[in-house]
UniProtKB/TrEMBL annotation, chain A:
InterPro entries: ND/Mrp_TM (IPR001750). Keywords: Membrane, Mitochondrion, Transmembrane, Transmembrane helix. It is found in: Membrane. The keyword Mitochondrion applies. Residues 84-370 form the NADH:quinone oxidoreductase/Mrp antiporter transmembrane domain. This is NADH-quinone oxidoreductase subunit N. Its main location: membrane. The chain crosses the membrane at residues 36-55, 62-83, 89-107, 119-140, 166-188, 200-222, 228-251, 258-278, 284-308, 320-339, 359-381, 393-414. It comes from the Eukaryota. It is a multi-pass membrane protein. GO terms for cellular component: membrane. Coiled coil: none annotated.
UniProtKB/TrEMBL annotation, chain B:
One of its GO terms (cellular component) is mitochondrial membrane. This is NADH-ubiquinone oxidoreductase chain 4. The keyword NAD applies. Its EC number is 7.1.1.2.
Length: 438, 492
């Protein structure tokens, strides 16, 4: 069954690759195909294929065939929301994704508390769906249209309409919730703490790219550019995410919480690019999401190889499996943003973007956040290299894990030595730049 | 003479080839009997070649920012441009210094087991390639990247081969202090790129900045360099790192990594922001004076041998900043001379203290007394090194400090007079250190062992002593005034 899922994903990759370039609309401007959506689809499909390939032993053991179908359904939901040029389709896509996720978390038989996690997620998620819907209705009341076409011209005509700006804010809040960005992040450690590592990584990593793109589109197409309250909300979210994510990362001893808090920090950085409307921000966002996803998937495959969630497994890794330790050092130094590893380029592009848009306020949280999270990644490297192992037995990983870890770390390293590769891999630079002018 | 092949290829490629080779054949090297000798000989190519370049090719790159270049076109969001590695005489001095210091570290590590030696060798060669590129590059972002990248090997050198459990704290402090400072620098670099559209140093010299932005950018650069130099109050990582690092790590730190800070001040802060440097000069004098006086006073109360040398390094390094910010040829030449001579003198001291530590496994001064009784050679060599440290006439430190005092006196006589006080305090702690360790009755805590003539310490320290005395007697090699073009270019 896992093989079948992989075949489906690769067919999807081929279908995405043969798409023509340019921007097309379908179903009376309900759906938009563009280079940016294609590239994000490509990233989503390849990254989830890599994740599923590396955990195929785990998946065939703990997930039934219908659970894997739900997993594919969630990807379809992401794509619908990604291609949406209309609030109705966006809502349907996000709901398809959300409901699949609630079921997926509950279906994992590896961990006992998974049903509790699924139920909690369902309750909190439905509340946020209501808020999303309310926002869409308020935008409809104010502009009389669900479609994003000519939305910005209508907004310019309307001027400062409080119903419109409140509606957009509610939609953004529901998206921030789904991204687990602070101050809407508190559900993530709780619910993901009850679910298994695979679910945390699949649900915490894969939807981030489409969601950030949707948010970028909503802000670009629908909001009024002089709407200060919306920007205040996003800047608050950026500062809080970077600070709380990096401070929360400190002294976590569980792979799941390490992954969650590291993603909160990085989402905060990505949001700082979302909140500026310029071509530079679009490019920054594309580069940042690509590199962050590549690094995170490498980190995820590394965490999978231990078969446990406890940080103690990393102790003295250099003695029990030196190749894994070197891969860990590369990935963690990259996450800490040490040049010339891939993480540095993403950090520098964010810094460049803040300077370009003269949003100097983000400097302070960025400096504190980078230093604190760099400290924790260094602590992990210290655990790998300088601590004594608990048992001297060599650690072996499966063939699938070693191959996928090799691919993921290799891509991170290739980006480091040949930085222009990120342009090819993301490919989204031009695509996302175009969206502004469509 | 002119080179038929660009000398940069050799300088950059040799260490990289050796690194790749030793990583590929690591397991084979660990088993071989003559591994250490083979590695020492193979890595001698770079220092000899760089010295050859320095002595014979000086007509080709006689002034700063003018010489052989190696260009790479880089096009990655957000920067598109040329990363240039430029070989002028000013950088070449540091390339030679890097190659020699790394080569000396290989002799220092000679007593290690084969496995450890090969691993350390790989890290040392990595440091050599990174630092060579950092000294040669002409692009601000490339300099920043190499400035940060060198932290990875030194983190592992201190963390893995350090002597005590506190080594983790020391490695963390070294890494995070530098990371914190350089984050401000990277913001400044991004701002420069946004406003000026280029990061090549030659293009940026002479650009106009507004009053506020030039001063803010200068502050951001200065914070990164001040942490690296280090200046009080950012100096706390240095004694920790020196105490916990193995001998070769201490030598690398003192001789090369601290120089990145002062090198950056000359090549980047002074060249990019001359007005702001002039504006902030009194502030730098104040911080330098505080650092010099504080470090020499606090050295008096230290009881760890390595901490004493580390704090005396802080004093010498801050003398260099005084020289740099005097903005005249005497001050800058003196700064250059002390940068080189401090590398030799503190390396000698660290190597000698390291050999003492290898014998007795303690660095606490209270356990040592009366070593002259059975270690005449070590006592003599140490005495010469201590004389070098207190700037005895005849050693290169004397020439450097004298030039710096001349240079500073022209700008601010008061500063020169206060800085001159350090001549007394340096002499006080150096001589007192020697007095406590080597003179007096033999301590009951130590047993009699062989003198240092049975290991690699003696030849290495004698070579270093010849170097710093040679520079003290004939400093003209470094003082051919290649600082004047910088002063003309920046119109200081």
């Amino acid at each position: 069954m896992v093989n079948l899922v992989l075949v489906v994903l690769f067919t999807g990759v081929i279908l995405v690759l043969i798409q023509p370039e340019g921007v097309f609309f379908g179903f009376d401007h309900l759906i938009r195909f563009s280079d940016a959506t294609n590239n994000i689809k490509f990233l989503v499909l390849t990254v989830s294929a890599l994740l599923i390939y590396s955990c195929r032993v785990y998946l065939s053991k703990y997930l039934t065939a219908d659970a894997l179908l739900v997993l594919l359904l969630s990807i379809i939901g992401m794509f619908l929301a990604l291609m949406a040029y209309d609030f109705r389709l966006m809502f349907i896509g996000l709901e398809l994704m959300g409901i699949s996720f609630y079921i997926l978390i509950a279906l994992d038989k590896n961990i006992k508390s998974s049903i509790k996690a699924g139920l909690n997620y369902y309750v909190v998620g439905s509340a946020m769906t209501a808020i999303n819907l309310l926002g869409i209705v308020m935008v409809y009341k104010s502009t009389g249209s669900f479609n994003w076409l000519n939305q910005s011209q209508i907004n310019l005509f309307l001027g400062n309409d409080s119903t419109l700006s409140l509606g957009v804010m509610l939609i953004i809040i529901s998206l921030l919730f789904k991204l687990a960005a602070a101050p809407f992040h508190l559900w993530a450690p709780k619910i993901y703490g009850d679910s298994s590592l695979f679910m945390v990584i699949f649900q915490g990593l894969i939807p981030k790219m489409p969601l950030l793109f949707i948010m970028f589109s909503v802000i670009n197409f629908v909001s009024v550019s002089s709407d200060l309250s919306l920007y205040t909300l996003i800047w608050l979210s950026v500062c809080l995410s970077v600070l709380l994510g990096s401070l929360g990362l400190l002294f976590q001893s569980n792979f799941k919480t390490i992954f969650i808090y590291s993603s909160i920090t990085n989402i905060g950085l990505a949001l700082s690019a979302v909140s500026n409307m310029s071509e530079t921000s679009a490019q920054t966002l594309a580069v940042f999401i690509t590199i962050y996803t590549l690094m995170s998937v490498a980190l995820a495959i590394l965490f999978f190889s231990f078969g446990t969630n406890n940080l103690r497994a990393l102790k003295g890794l250099i003695e029990i499996n030196p190749y894994l330790a070197i891969a860990a050092a590369l990935i963690l130094f990259s996450l800490a943003g040490v040049p010339p590893l891939a993480g540095f380029y993403s950090k520098f592009s964010i810094i460049y973007n803040t300077m370009y848009n003269e949003t100097f306020i983000v400097m302070i949280p960025l400096i504190i956040g980078s230093c604190v999270s760099a400290f924790y990644y260094l602590y992990l490297i210290k655990t790998c290299f300088l601590d004594k192992p608990e048992s001297k037995t060599p650690l072996f990983i499966t063939y699938y894990q070693s191959l996928s870890l090799f691919v993921a770390t290799g891509v991170v390293l290739l980006v480091s030595t040949k930085p222009w590769l990120v342009v090819i891999i993301s490919g989204t630079m031009l695509g996302m730049g175009e969206t502004i002018y469509v | 003479m002119t080179f038929s092949i660009n000398p940069l290829f050799g300088l950059v490629l040799f260490p990289l080839i050796i690194v790749v080779h030793s990583i590929l054949f690591k397991s084979k090297l660990e088993k071989d009997n003559f591994t250490k000798e083979a590695l020492i000989i193979s890595s001698a190519i770079t220092p000899l070649y760089s010295l050859y370049c320095l002595l014979l090719g000086h007509e080709d790159f006689s002034s700063i920012l003018n010489g052989y270049t190696l260009n790479f076109v880089v096009s990655v969001f957000p920067f598109e441009g040329i990363v240039t590695f430029l070989l002028d005489k000013f950088s070449l001095i540091f390339v030679v210094l890097t190659a020699f210091t790394v080569h000396i570290c290989m002799f220092v590590n000679y007593n290690m087991s084969n496995k450890k030696y090969v691993e350390m060798f790989i890290l040392l060669m990595l440091i050599q390639s990174i630092l060579t590129l950092a000294f040669l590059t002409n692009n601000i972002i490339a300099f920043y990247m190499l400035f940060e990248l060198v932290l990875i090997p030194i983190f592992f050198i201190i963390g893995i081969w350090g002597s005590r459990n506190r080594k983790v704290l020391a490695a963390f402090q070294l890494f995070l202090y530098t990371l914190f400072g350089s984050l401000f620098m990277v913001f400044a670099i991004a701002y420069i790129y946004v406003t000026k559209g280029t990061l090549v140093l030659n293009d940026l010299i002479g650009t106009d900045w507004s009053f506020l932005e030039e001063r803010l950018l200068w502050c951001a650069f200065f914070l990164a360099f001040a942490i690296k130099i280090p200046m009080v109050p950012f100096h706390t990582w240095l004694p920790e790192a020196h105490v916990e690092a193995p001998t070769s790590g201490s030598v690398l730190l003192a001789a090369l990594l601290l120089k990145l800070g002062t090198f950056g001040l000359i090549k980047y802060s002074l060249a990019l922001f001359p007005d702001a440097s002039w504006y902030f000069a009194p502030f730098v004098y104040l911080v330098s004076l505080i650092s010099i006086l504080y470090s020499s006073l606090t050295t008096l109360r230290q009881i760890d041998l390595k901490k004493i040398i580390a704090y005396s390094s802080v004093g010498h390094m801050n003398f260099i900043t005084l020289g740099i910010f005097s903005f005249n040829v005497q001050g800058l030449d003196g700064a250059l001379l002390i940068m080189v001579s401090h590398a030799f003198i503190s390396s000698t001291l660290f190597i000698l203290v390291g050999s003492l530590y290898d014998k007795y496994h303690t660095r606490v001064l209270k356990y040592y007394r009366g070593l002259t009784v059975f270690m005449p050679i070590l006592s003599t060599v140490f005495f010469i090194a201590v004389l070098g440290n207190l700037s005895m006439p005849g050693t290169s430190n004397f020439v450097g400090e004298f030039l710096i005092l001349i240079g500073t006196f022209q700008k601010s006589p008061t500063t020169a007079v206060i800085a001159g006080l350090s001549i007394i305090s340096t002499a006080a702690y150096s001589i007192w250190l020697y007095n406590r360790v080597f003179m007096g009755r033999l301590s009951i805590h130590i047993h009699q062992t062989r003198d240092i003539n049975y290991d690699m310490t003696l030849p290495v320290s004698i070579v270093l002593i010849f170097l710093f005395i040679g520079l003290g007697v004939y400093p003209k090699i470094l003082l051919e005034s290649h600082m004047t073009p910088l002063l003309i270019k920046t119109q200081l």
